[in-house]
Specification:
about 350 residues; two-stranded antiparallel sheet; globular
């Protein structure tokens, strides 16, 4: 018998993974623009704009898919998240809107310096802002401070996400997005000096991700969440951690030796995929953890009726048959030359 809910959860996990690998890299490009350095400033901006422009709108499709799956397949999870995490969700929506407007206006509006400077900084800061709050929201369901029975506005709507653990996870997400962007831009750059610059940034950001990962575990322990015991007590998490560690060796070698452009991008994406897989496994089967001694909400408890889930699964299968060929065609049109050059 087919486990419909398990397949829907697989679609949910893959949608989140694709949003991080593709949409996250788009945010990372804006984050990288915050510090262009003293050399090749114009060339960096031009390269990042050229890399992001064809696909940045399409990449939000994965986030929309996540929302639809939660809304139809797990309505209670959708309701709880949209209620108790309303403020950071609105922060994300604001960031996405500002970022999209700024990215468009700086290419098609007047080229006089003053508005161009405004658009550039709006694009950069909204990229950082949105990436940060995406990480903050990811931490709240795991930490267990969502408080439906809270007695104040702060307890109900703020305490679940405004805490050291979620803030560190927000910084960790920013670092991951910037790392993905730097790694992908190594392949986008046809100029050797530009490629070397992004390789150096990727090295620095890889170290930053590892350090922030350690800080994240420490923040969890400080919040009385036994994340270390839960993670290393799970054989799948241990396996994923070992795989990510092993992938770091060739990834680091490719970056330092200035070889293997395609391998650098594949290894970088693979390491981040391992991080996300470990997080999914650590969270499952719990969807939300509550404060005040309330029992956690599992995906099985929050699942929609069987008829709704079967309809959702059918829509996801049909949609995938339309989405993936279209996405491949889009990449072939706008990224084909990059792939041919780096293969």
């Amino acid at each position: 018998m087919i486990n419909v809910m398990a397949i829907i959860l697989l679609f949910l996990a893959l949608s989140l993974l694709f949003y991080v690998l593709f949409g996250g890299a788009d945010f990372g490009a804006g984050i990288l623009e915050l510090r262009l350095g003293k050399t090749l400033r114009d060339e960096q901006q031009e390269l990042m704009a050229h890399a992001v422009a064809p696909v940045w709108e399409a990449n939000h499709m994965w986030l929309i898919l996540v929302v639809v799956i939660l809304f139809m397949g797990f309505p209670r999870v959708y309701t709880e998240l949209s209620t108790y995490l309303f403020l950071p969700i609105m922060a994300i929506l604001l960031g996405i809107v500002v970022r999209g407007c700024a990215f468009t206006f700086r290419h098609y509006d007047t080229l006089t310096p003053r508005p161009q400077g405004l658009y550039r900084w709006a694009y950069r800061l909204s990229s950082l802002w949105t990436a940060f709050f995406l990480g903050v929201i990811a931490g709240a369901p795991f930490l267990g401070r969502i408080s439906p029975q809270g007695s104040s506005f702060y307890e109900v709507y703020v305490a679940s996400w405004l805490n050291p653990f979620c803030l560190v996870l927000g910084c960790f997400t920013v670092a991951i997005f910037a790392l993905l962007a730097a790694v992908y831009l190594v392949g986008e750059a046809s100029d050797g000096a530009l490629a070397a610059l992004f390789r150096r940034r990727a090295v620095f950001l890889a170290v930053t991700v590892v350090v922030l990962g350690a800080v994240l575990f420490a923040a969890a322990e400080a919040a009385d969440v036994a994340m270390t015991r839960l993670f290393f007590g799970n054989p799948v998490c241990c396996g994923v951690f070992a795989l990510a560690t092993l992938l770091l060796v060739p990834f680091w070698w490719c970056l330092r030796s200035k070889q293997g452009t395609v391998a650098v991008r594949a290894l970088g994406a693979g390491i981040i995929a391992c991080v996300l897989l470990g997080w999914f496994v650590l969270q499952y089967p719990v969807a939300l953890r509550y404060a005040g001694g309330l029992p956690p909400l599992t995906f099985a408890e929050a699942a929609a009726p069987d008829a709704t889930q079967r309809s959702l699964l059918g829509a996801l299968v049909v949609g995938s048959c339309l989405i993936f060929p279209s996405l491949i065609y889009l990449l072939k049109i706008f990224k084909g030359e990059t792939f041919r050059r780096t293969s």
